[in-house]
Design brief:
Chain A: This is Aldehyde oxidoreductase molybdenum-binding subunit PaoC. Chain A: It is an enzyme of class 1 (oxidoreductase). Chain A: InterPro entries: Ald_Oxase/Xan_DH_a/b, Ald_Oxase/Xan_DH_a/b_sf, Ald_Oxase/xanthine_DH-like, AldOxase/xan_DH_MoCoBD1, AldOxase/xan_DH_MoCoBD2, AldOxase/xan_DH_Mopterin-bd_sf, PaoC-like. The structure holds 2 protein chains of 2 kinds. By secondary structure, chain A is of the alpha+beta class. Chain A has 16 helices and 33 strands. Chain A folds into 3 domains: about 170 residues, Aldehyde oxidase/xanthine dehydrogenase, molybdopterin binding domain (Aldehyde Oxidoreductase, domain 4, 2-Layer Sandwich), CATH 3.30.365; about 190 residues, Aldehyde oxidase/xanthine dehydrogenase, molybdopterin binding domain (Aldehyde Oxidoreductase, domain 4), CATH 3.30.365.10; about 230 residues, Aldehyde Oxidoreductase, domain 4. In chain A, helix 9 runs parallel beside helix 16, helix 12 packs parallel to helix 13 and helix 15 packs across helix 16. Chain A is globular, with a radius of gyration of 27 Å. The mean pLDDT of chain A is about 95. Chain B is built from 11 helices and 11 strands. In chain B, strand 6 and strand 7 form a beta hairpin. Chain B is globular and about 55 Å long. Classes of the chains: A alpha+beta, B alpha+beta.
């Protein structure tokens, strides 16, 4: 199905199932431990051996010699694979560094060997007996020191062009009566999802099956084939349940390739999970940024010039963090400029993490807006409203398909009690300094083609099949809701099968595009199924209603399953998109509100209240959507206050590489969170009239926290995370 | 984890004798620290002596009017004991500020005292660490040292002792009771129990080879107001940046012990005479001779400010 004109009224609009708060259909499987995750595929693989990965002890250089003799002699060891013995390996399309290093080492904890043994403990013990002599080379590890060596990235990445300019920014900024010119930094961050990267690999002749944890099945099937140099048709990925990804599992990682190599070498199925201390340097992370923001405005608060420059680093051949991109869209202003610069760093590979670009970009931009509002003496919400735009400021002929940012902010202000906010450092409750902050959020709606197959059997059960993934987001449920709505059946008559690369290729899970695109794919397949059903039942297809488990036309009503009396009906289709995303800017918006308390003596900051008001198209499952948003808000608190991969600039690695050192919020850090979804349908987006919320919930939260800390203390911190050591000496004296 | 042999000891003295006799032996009780370190191959014992069945898990009054806490009393039970809560509130609060409920259910009194540093370089076997591999150097010096020690440290090691409980024990003047491999017992004042690193940071306590902690005794209650404030980056389940425990008497005298800043729970009795003069004066004495790094210099300010807040709280 080609979607190239705005959606008209369609069966989804009935909203009998879609749009209703719905429990996860996979919930009972998860709470009872029956959902099979990649490392636990006892249902598919018998008697697996265990793989353990040895990582490089240096960040850059060469392996001069590697001695496996002692490890090989250990009890239970079945095979050891290194770059010397793995055969020729290509690099995947989506990988920057090789997944098996040697002799060249590109980053710390790059895999240099996989040890396969009868038990996990045997494999781990053997790994410690491998002696590797490294020839260490000098590397580049300090982004701040290398900032001036950063260059314009050659290729247009997923974020579009590295640079944009409209009007004359320098002139406009110079002429502005009120100006802000400030530098902000965000640190490297880890996805830190609960389930580590894990794969169970099984060879049957030339055919490889990987039971793995992966967000993007079709991409990754291709990259497994490319890396191993085998035909794609000989590769199958199965990833029905995933314990979190946040972008860390968008790509094939070392677990998959090394499990495959280990299984080949040992002649046994191999299960392999990356251990937690290994994940921070072996896999990808969100790159640190340095950002310069300049805003010029008239005295009455109209932005006349806005410029945002962002610097980040990555391994040779890698890409930038596109932290400036939202600034192209979020506020009006005649003279505009954005620039993205990329330095070469020899730290582990930087890549996408939840809301790549916007998450760190808004952490900076939305502090800048707060600072500017204060300079102007205008309420920060009013300042944002003054500079709202209903068109793409760089291409005014492109309207936003929907843009309710101002309503998000104004409704949020009303619900949150924003009118009680006082000036910086002026509200105190005993030892606590109290402050409120706001941040605007924007995250784009990305359109990706997405396929699905639906089957109807005689019992009236509809089975949805697609390689779409559920990374904890609730995909199973919204796909079931979609099929139920389309076919006029209750949700318990729908079975959803996901994550198998033998199924039709979907959009996959990433960039908050999963929900809208994958449900649209199911919509397309169901439209075909409806036609076939109607034909089988002898109805005129244009005047058929699917409701209450029956097919109605005129005064005839027939049970849906009757259509499959002579055999299962199968329909398959793919949603594909025209140029509506070129004609219109499609984005989602949020207003984030935070209240903090800062201990005036110790500087400890505690979040007291949080509210997000989101406008994100039709909300398919308000319950799951709320879960997505509160999870993202929690991640935003982590980003604002604690999360930082600490770089050892001498040896080139992330030092705090476990969950004791890389702290994420715990329950005690997170107070009551409220989420409001504005009524919105976006017919320009898709037949579902939906967009996504999974990343929007994170966009703007960090700055709202930062602005609340400023409001509480009167101290502005522009370097994340905002830990107490950055402002302790500026707090009031202890009585 | 390397393969290891295992035995259950029958008596404390037998456990100590076995530990002295068997090469590469370690005691195991709650295992909340040792097992993690074994999985990471930071600790690689060849033999484990399980002391859980020794029955030294009671809290009993002493003739002197104090309490004798068996080495195996779990942190949860100790924190919840009515006598501890009434007379040694500092200890109960310090315990509850540490770890998580699940860990406290397993972790023992002796094990808590013996827990090892959380220095990130100690935890990475690719990095030089004089504690983990004597003579290999210290990668933390000149590295990421935000969480590390500011006082009592040496050129060989800047790690901290991470226990909350030990801070309270230090303020309460606890005594560590042990049994040695020859069956004799001795008592070690808590002040002498943890050693400063000097040139030998791998030697962390005064315990001799095979020596087993059997109990920790608390002297007669000293009264006063007890406050323990642990400052950390998140609200729970994190090690202290700085923790301050105080016992303040009505006459303004008192005791101060500090965690998160040194290789042992840090207390300078002489500085306590300055309590009537306020936190700044006490902190100056406590922190005299501090050698912070660029990353952890803030701890000096933080100790002073937290102490100020804690004293204000204690004095109501």
């Amino acid at each position: 199905m080609k979607f190239d004109t705005p959606a008209a009224k369609n069966p989804i609009d009935r909203l009998k199932v879609v749009g209703k708060a719905t429990d996860r259909i996979d919930g009972p499987l998860k709470t009872t431990g029956l959902a099979p995750y990649a490392y636990e595929r006892h249902d598919k693989v018998r008697n697996p051996a265990y793989g353990y990965v040895l990582g490089s002890a240096i960040a850059k250089g060469k392996i001069a010699a590697i001695d496996l003799a002692a490890a090989k002699a250990m009890p239970g060891v079945l095979a050891i694979v290194t770059a010397d013995t793995a055969g020729k390996l290509e690099k995947g399309q989506f990988n920057t560094a090789k997944l098996l290093g040697g002799p060249d080492i590109e980053h710390y904890h790059q895999a240099v060997a996989v040890i396969v043994a009868e038990t996990f403990e045997q494999a781990r013990a053997a790994a410690s007996l491998i002696t590797v002599n490294y020839a260490r080379a000098t590397g580049n590890f300090d982004l701040a020191a290398l900032k001036d060596t950063a260059v314009k990235p050659v290729a247009d990445g997923p974020g579009g062009k590295p640079d944009t300019a409209v009007g004359d920014f320098e002139k406009g900024f110079a002429a502005a009566p009120v100006k802000l010119d400030a530098l902000y930094t965000t640190p490297d961050q880890a996805h830190a999802m609960m389930e580590p990267h894990a794969t169970t690999a099984l060879w049957e002749g030339d055919k490889l099956t990987l039971y793995t944890a992966n967000q993007m099945i079709a991409w990754s099937k291709g990259d497994v084939a490319k890396t191993l140099g085998i035909a794609p048709e000989n590769v199958r990925l199965d990833s029905p349940y995933i314990g979190g990804g946040f972008g860390g599992k968008l790509f094939v990682r070392a677990d998959a390739i090394l499990a495959a190599l280990g299984a080949k070498a040992s002649g046994r199925p191999v299960k392999l999970a990356l251990t937690r201390p290994f994940m921070f340097n072996n896999t990808t992370h969100r790159p640190a940024t340095i950002q310069r923001i300049r805003i010029g405005a008239t005295k009455d608060g109209k932005i006349t010039a806005i410029g945002h420059e962002g610097w980040s680093g990555d391994l040779p051949g890698g890409g930038p963090e596109t932290a400036v991109n939202q600034t192209r869209l979020l506020y009006a202003g005649a003279d505009r400029m954005t620039k993205t610069r990329l330095a070469v760093l020899d730290l582990p590979e930087g890549n996408a993490m939840r809301a790549p670009g916007e998450a760190p970009g808004l952490m900076a931009l939305e502090i800048a807006m707060d600072e500017m509002a204060e300079k102007l003496g205008i309420d920060p919400i009013k300042f944002r409203a003054i500079n709202d735009t209903q068109v793409d400021p760089e291409k005014p002929e492109r309207k936003f398909s929907q843009r309710q940012l101002v309503k998000c902010l104004e409704l949020g202000a009303e619900k949150f009690g924003w009118d009680k906010r006082k000036g910086p450092g002026s509200v105190r409750e005993g030892r606590w300094l109290i402050g409120m902050g706001v941040g605007a959020g924007i995250r784009n709606n990305l359109l990706m083609k997405s396929g699905a197959r639906v089957r109807l059997n005689q019992a009236g059960i509809v089975t949805v099949e697609t390689d779409m993934t559920d990374i904890g987001t609730g995909t199973y449920t919204i796909l079931a809701q979609t099929a139920a709505e389309m076919m006029g059946i209750p949700i318990d008559k729908v079975v959803v099968t996901l994550g198998d690369s033998d199924l039709p290729a979907s959009a996959g899970s990433g960039g908050q595009w999963g929900a809208n695109n994958s449900t649209s794919g199911v919509y397309a397949a169901c439209m075909k199924l409806r036609e076939t059903v109607a034909q089988r039942l002898g109805f005129n297809t244009t005047e058929v209603d699917f409701a209450d488990g029956k097919v109605h036309s005129g005064n005839r009503s027939i049970a849906l399953g009757e259509a499959a009396r002579t055999g299962e009906i199968v329909a398959e289709d793919t949603i594909e998109y025209g140029d509506l995303d070129k004609k219109y800017q499609q984005s989602t918006f949020a207003g984030h509100f935070v209240e903090v308390a800062v201990d005036a003596a110790t500087g400890e900051t505690r979040i007291r209240r949080m509210l997000a008001v989101c406008a994100a198209g039709r909300i398919l499952n308000p319950k799951a959507a709320r879960s997505q948003v509160i999870g993202a808000m929690t991640m935003g608190v982590g980003a604002a206050m604690i999360e930082e991969l600490a770089v050892d600039k001498r040896f080139g690695f992330f030092v705090n590489h476990d969950l004791a050192g890389y702290e994420v919020p715990v329950h005690a850090d997170i107070p009551h969170q409220e989420v409001i979804f504005l009524e919105e349908e976006d017919p320009i987006s898709s037949p579902m009239k939906a967009k996504g919320v999974g990343e929007l919930g994170l966009c703007g939260v960090g700055a709202a926290v930062a602005n609340a800390i400023y409001n509480a203390t009167g101290i502005r911190v522009r370097d994340y995370p905002i830990t107490l050591d950055k402002y302790l000496d500026r707090l009031p004296p202890v009585a | 984890m390397k393969a290891f042999s295992y035995e259950r000891a029958r008596t404390p003295a037998a456990a100590a004798a076995a530990a002295e006799r068997t090469p590469g032996a370690k005691f195991i009780a709650g295992g909340t620290n040792l097992l993690d370190l074994m999985k990471l191959q930071i600790e690689t014992p060849q033999h484990l002596i399980d002391v859980n069945g020794l029955g030294i898990d009671k809290i009993e009054p002493t003739p002197e009017g104090g309490l004798r806490i068996g080495a195996l009393v779990r942190n949860t039970d100790l924190a919840a004991d009515m006598r501890i809560r009434r007379d040694y509130g500092l200890l109960s609060r310090a315990l509850l500020a540490g770890a998580s409920g699940q860990l406290r259910n397993k972790a023992t009194t002796a094990g808590n005292l013996l827990q090892r540093t959380r220095c990130p370089y100690f935890y990475d076997t690719n990095q030089a660490c004089n504690k983990r591999k004597p003579g290999s150097g210290c990668a933390a010096i000149g590295g990421f040292s935000r969480s590390l020690g500011v006082i009592g440290v040496s050129d060989a090691c800047i790690a901290t002792q991470p226990s909350d409980m030990a801070v309270a024990m230090r303020a309460l003047d606890a005594t560590v009771e042990t049994v040695r491999p020859d069956g004799t017992a001795r008592a070690i004042p808590i002040a002498d129990f943890h050693r400063l690193p000097g040139a030998t940071p791998h030697i962390e306590t005064a315990l001799g080879k095979g020596e087993l902690i059997t109990a920790v005794t608390l002297p007669k209650p000293v009264g006063g107001t007890h406050v323990y404030h642990k400052v950390r980056d998140r609200a729970s389940y994190a090690f202290a940046l700085v923790s301050v425990g105080v016992i303040v008497q009505k006459d303004g005298s008192g005791r101060v012990a500090v965690g998160g800043i040194a290789p042992k729970p840090w207390r300078v009795e002489a500085s306590e005479a300055d309590l009537p003069r306020g936190a700044k004066a006490v902190a100056a004495g406590l922190l005299a001779g501090a050698k912070p790094t660029h990353d952890n210099q803030f701890k000096l300010t933080l100790v002073e400010r937290t102490l100020g807040a804690v004293l204000a709280e204690a004095r109501g």
